[in-house]
UniProtKB/TrEMBL annotation:
Keyword Ion transport: no
Coiled-coil regions, chain positions: none
Top-level taxon: Eukaryota
Organism whose genome encodes this protein: Homalodisca liturata
InterPro entries attached to this UniProt entry: FN3_dom, FN3_sf, Ig-like_fold
Entry protein name: Fibronectin type-III domain-containing protein
Keywords for this protein: Membrane, Transmembrane, Transmembrane helix
């Protein structure tokens, strides 16, 4: 039992037609004819069984590839930042290398590492 679902006319510039509300699992056939001033041309027949896959089928992005690209970007940014930091630190050390810096707490102060200071009051003549 063939049932005619739809008839349509389209312009010559149109290259595709989208049919909606087709039932999954049914067999559909289409006939296409060119219509000119001289009349209708020969018919082109086509049969299609509607599949459950939606049209158009777009492949899903591969998760492992996305994760690999993200991990590579993180590693490269981290390596660049570490290199920049270490070179800057090395340049600062090179600039300050000629200065003498106390090594530990005993080198600090005027009294050679004495932890307590001695306070001496000197009497002043107020005449």
């Amino acid at each position: 039992a063939n049932i005619e679902v739809s008839k349509m006319k389209v312009n010559a510039s149109q290259t595709s037609v989208l049919l909606r509300n087709l039932t999954q699992g049914n067999l559909y056939s289409a006939t296409v004819r060119a219509s000119t001033a001289e009349g209708n041309g020969p018919a082109a027949h086509m049969s299609v069984r509607h599949s459950p896959a939606p049209y158009p089928v777009v492949p899903a992005p591969r998760l492992w590839l996305v994760l690999l690209v993200a991990a590579t970007a993180v590693v490269l940014v981290t390596a660049f930042a570490a290199t920049f930091y270490l070179r800057r630190k090395q340049a600062m050390t090179k600039q300050l290398g000629h200065l003498s810096v106390p090594v530990n707490g005993t080198d600090l102060g005027l009294m050679g590492g004495v932890k307590e200071a001695l306070w001496i009051e000197v009497p002043h003549d107020t005449h």
